[in-house]
Amino acid sequence: MAFFTMVWAGIASGGLAGFGQYAVLFVFGVPAGMFVACSISLFRASRGFPPLTSSADKAEGKRMGIWYGIIFGAEGITIPIVCGFLVYFRQTAFILPAIALVIGLHFYPMARIFKRTIDYYLATWTCLVAFSAIAAIKNNILPQNTIYALLGMGVAVATTGYGLYMIYEGKRLVGSGDQRLEIRD
Fold first, then answer.
1. C-alpha angle 125-71-62 in degrees, rounded to nearest 5
2. End-to-end alpha-carbon separation of the chain, Å?
3. How confident is the model at residue 183 (pLDDT cuts 50, 70, 90)?
4. For position 178, what pLDDT does the model report?
5. Is 182 part of any domain?
6. How many structural domains is the chain composed of?
7. Domain limits at 6?
8. Is the pTM higher than 0.70?
9. Residue 183 falls within a domain, yes or no?
10. Would you say residue 184 lies in a domain?
């Protein structure tokens, strides 16, 4: 999440000028740095957990991995196809909101695969941000740079929320002594 948070913060920063562009990078850079530090700590702690041994756990892990790969692959194929169509039809202003929309949509099946309610909230939030940006561009409500700044901040809020959730869940699992540390995505 550190990487994706900073990508979207960078998009937001690019749409701003002056102090605002640096403030956005700082505001989202702090949690991104925290994500990296906490992920290292959680990976170290996970070494102390025994591997999954039951055949049911192994089968469930394999099923989740396969579906994660399918969803991630579909997202990776869909983004360039959508961008290609937008370029072909000379609608390049919609590329960033379209990418955000595809990203938002990918959270819906993830919620089902990993049985996490937070994915539904993140999906809905990200899709609303993307649709708002699309509507703002279509109706020329704000300058394009301002729309991109708001879009970038909106998606960075989602990735930041997801990263914080992962830290919370990881520390909860480590603190509880749970035998299966399952933090994904």
1. 120
2. 8
3. very low
4. 47
5. no
6. 1
7. 2-48+59-176
8. yes
9. no
10. no
Q: SS3 sequence, 24-89? A: HHHHHHHHHHHHHHHHHHHHHHHCCCCCCCCHHHHHHHHHHHHHHHHHHHHHHHHHHHHHHHHHHC
Give domain status of residue 121, yes or no. Answer: yes
Contact 35, 167 (CB under 8 A): yes
Q: Which amino acid is at 94?
A: F
Per the document, the length of the chain is 185
Q: Looking at residue 148, what is its pLDDT?
A: 97
124-141 pLDDT per residue, tens = 999 999 999 999 999 999
Long-range Cβ contact pairs of 165-171 (< 8 A, separation 24 or more)? 165/118, 166/1, 166/35, 166/39, 167/34, 167/35, 167/38, 167/42, 170/38, 170/42, 170/45, 171/38, 171/42
pLDDT tens, residue by residue, 67-120: 999 999 999 999 999 999 999 999 999 999 999 999 999 999 999 999 999 999
Q: Does residue 51 come out as left (phi exceeding 0), alpha (psi in the -120 to 50 range) or beta?
A: beta
Token reading at 111:
């919620």
